[in-house]
Design goal:
By secondary structure, this protein is of the alpha/beta class. β4, α3 and β5 form a beta-alpha-beta unit. This is Dihydrodipicolinate reductase.
Length: about 325
């Protein structure tokens, strides 16, 4: 460890937490100092010297100035409480959960959490969990390759077999179709707003919906069996119309019904004065956790240069430097 190393505390020892530990070990300039878990008896196989702690208060006491990588799967109020726990003890925190656009996903737009973070000189960063990163940060970063684009379509299939059963059911997989179609736990509207912010255009109109995918037979997975007629996947689509007649269409297609012929590649197509077509494939399509953990760690490093408060994934450099109205863009 050197004086410039960033100290990291991993919160949660699920699959993503374990993956984050491995990513920390493999990243120069990162010092993994502790893990926080409610089940210390399961904290085995950790790197030498990594402390096992029961809560974030202990982490703040033993490692002030550390950054928390929170790998806890949570939504809405549960998510906000997880972030508040870190902020109130003065620790910076990067969440993997669905807070990649807090203004639309926290009850008050994130104002209370932002004020609390400023009060305790802490930073809350939303990294953009998969599929967040590939549905917003990545497209926003490459759209300069198609100047004058008028429409952009992004499609991200996901292999949900690798997800824990609790995460699948939280998103409606394994439930009856009406459960999927009556709620949108992870709104893709957040990603549309991030892309709009990156290109400096206001969202004029936006719509979003989910359609369940079912099978006529039971689908047997290693950790559960989904009965026939229940949701084995869904198609979630968000269409945003931006000022100037531009359109962003984002589609997320998780499924547990995956075969060797299933195309799980990310697809992006922009059309207009200049065209752009991009297809990405690789191991991330079966297992997104390494990419998510790496994104969280990169966000944690960038967070040190940001002022205290609540920040979106656009804050480290994607946000258009001037707001559509001509003023300076807000950091949040």
């Amino acid at each position: 460890m050197t004086g410039s190393d960033i100290q990291v505390v991993v919160q949660g020892l699920g699959l993503l937490g374990r993956t984050a530990i491995g990513v920390c070990e493999d990243t120069p300039g990162v010092d993994l100092v502790a893990v926080v878990t409610r089940r210390p008896d399961e904290a085995t196989g950790l790197p030498p010297g990594v402390a096992v702690l029961g809560d974030l208060r202990e982490a703040a006491r033993d490692h002030p100035g550390a950054v928390v990588l929170s790998t806890v799967h949570a939504l809405d109020g549960d998510l906000e409480r997880t972030l508040v726990d870190a902020v109130t003890v003065g620790l910076d925190v990067v969440t993997s959960s669905g807070a990649f656009h807090p203004p639309t996903q926290l009850a008050d737009g994130g104002d209370a959490l932002d004020a609390l973070a400023r009060q305790h000189s802490a930073r809350v960063m939303a990294s953009g969990v998969q599929p967040g990163f590939v549905l917003d940060v990545l497209p926003a970063a490459v759209l300069d390759l198609a100047p004058g684009w008028t429409s952009v379509d992004v499609v991200k299939p996901s292999d949900a077999r690798s997800w824990p059963p609790s995460t699948r059911h939280m998103l409606g997989l394994g439930e009856l179709p009406h459960v999927v179609e009556s709620a949108v736990p992870y709104p893709l509207a957040a990603s549309a707003h991030l892309i709009a912010s990156a290109v400096g255009r206001c969202v004029v109109e936006i719509s979003e919906s989910r359609s369940a995918r079912t099978a006529r037979h039971d689908v047997v997975l290693p950790d559960e069996t989904i009965p026939a007629g229940h949701s084995i996947g869904f198609a979630q689509e968000c269409v945003a119309r931006l000022e100037g007649g531009r359109q962003v269409r984002i589609r997320w297609e998780p499924t547990v019904d995956v075969t060797e012929d299933t195309d799980l590649s990310l697809r992006l197509e922009a059309t207009g004065k200049a065209d752009l077509t991009m297809t990405l494939d690789g191991s991330f399509r079966q297992d997104p956790y390494p990419a998510t953990a790496a994104r969280m760690l990169h966000t944690a490093v960038r967070a040190r240069d940001l002022p205290p408060g609540l920040h979106t994934a656009a804050a480290p450099g994607l946000q258009w430097p001037l707001s559509p109205a001509g003023g300076r863009a807000r950091r949040r």
